[in-house]
């Protein structure tokens, strides 16, 4: 498997690692970037995949983000693994900001006052009647999430595609330099790698 660990983590370690990576956020981001850049796909495929994952993160349909990201990626001819990586933009640290932003935008778009969906929400109602409790919140969030998801798809597609194209071009140059220094037989093997890059 692509991301399988040699020593599996227990449940508590997984939760802790998800909230705060042991190696730090910058190293975790570099690791994800290297995995992403080395996917065997075109710059369009990787960028469309990531953009699909980012876009679906701006919807309130928790639990369906991976399926939704896969559907959008397939429709855009993107890479499904890249789409799942893109969903990492929605995480415990960013979801509160995303939800507030899409709720406010959605409320403004449908002409609701900001407190209409939240004023009746209580713990008892949430436990016994979750549909009645969350319904007034989900509609503005779904409507407000659509334009943000659409804009985020195009912005992230453009950024990732440019980055992947630069990475692949630099990799081709590096492989070409290596090929020129190797004997003929080994040079042909590197040339095959260049075509795949």
Automatic annotation (TrEMBL):
One Pfam family per UniProt: DUF2062
Signal peptide annotation: none
Keywords: Membrane, Transmembrane, Transmembrane helix
Entry annotated with the keyword Transmembrane helix: yes
Transmembrane segments: 46-68, 80-102, 137-160
Domain called DUF2062: residue spans: 27-171
Keyword Membrane: yes
Domain of life from the UniProt record: Bacteria
PANTHER family xrefs: SLL0298 PROTEIN
Name of the protein: DUF2062 domain-containing protein
Organism per entry: Iodidimonas muriae
């Amino acid at each position: 498997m692509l991301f399988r660990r040699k020593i599996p983590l227990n449940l508590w370690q997984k939760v802790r690692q998800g909230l705060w990576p042991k190696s730090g956020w910058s190293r975790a981001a570099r690791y994800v970037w290297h995995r992403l850049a080395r996917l065997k796909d075109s710059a369009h495929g990787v960028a469309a995949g990531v953009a699909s994952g980012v876009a679906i993160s701006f919807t309130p349909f928790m639990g369906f983000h991976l399926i939704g990201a896969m559907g959008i990626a397939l429709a855009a001819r993107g890479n499904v693994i890249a789409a799942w990586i893109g969903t990492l933009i929605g995480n415990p640290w960013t979801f509160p900001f995303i939800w507030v932003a899409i709720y406010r935008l959605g409320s403004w778009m449908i002409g609701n006052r900001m407190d209409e969906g939240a004023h009746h929400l209580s713990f008892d109602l949430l436990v016994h009647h979750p549909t009645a409790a969350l319904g007034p919140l989900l509609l503005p969030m779904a409507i407000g999430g659509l334009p943000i998801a659409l804009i985020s798809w195009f912005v992230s597609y453009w950024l990732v595609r440019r980055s992947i194209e630069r990475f692949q071009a630099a990799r081709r140059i590096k492989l070409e330099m290596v090929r020129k220094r190797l004997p003929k037989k080994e040079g042909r093997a590197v040339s095959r790698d260049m075509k795949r890059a």
